[in-house]
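Notebook entry, cofactor series.
This is the third protein in the set we're modelling with a bound small molecule. For this one the ligand is flavin mononucleotide. I'm keeping the input format identical across the series so the outputs can be compared line by line later. Sequence and SMILES below, as received.
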Amino acid sequence: MVHIYYDSRTGNVQRFINKVTQITGWEAYKISPELEAKEPGHLVTFTTNFGQIPEATEEFLDRASNMIYSVSSSGNMNWGQNYAVAADKISEELDIPIAFKFELSGTMEDINKFIDIIKNNHYDSKRRSEELDIA
Ligand SMILES: Cc1cc2nc3c(=O)[nH]c(=O)nc-3n(C[C@H](O)[C@H](O)[C@H](O)COP(=O)(O)O)c2cc1C
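Returned structure with ligand:
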């Protein structure tokens, strides 16, 4: 079973996740201060305030980053260089591979791409172990 932890403030990520879970039957958990990550899974969040990671996502990662296989971010291309950069920041800070970026609640094509990437581990899943080998 695939487990997904997600953050959503205005509902876009929520709508994206609703479609993903309808299609796949995967388990999704909305991030809240009380949420504990009991199973390893994937993080889907959004980008806020000029390229920032949402606060609830940061707090969740403080306690659960070791349970996260990949990070994805919703964003809006109107933000130019800051488009969905929460994923890049989380990836750099915590060495978690990026799975996917999408606009707002995503198109059907985005949803199918995301499912495909997660199902087939088409993110850089070896990144952590490669870096450890070099170190
Ligand atoms: C105040 C504010 C700041 C935002 N800043 C960014 C940003 O820097 N980069 C980006 O790609 N999207 C930005 N967005 C767009 C959101 O990431 C996008 O709407 C996302 O789908 C929100 O997810 P949610 O509806 O699940 O909360 C911003 C939106 C708001 C309201």
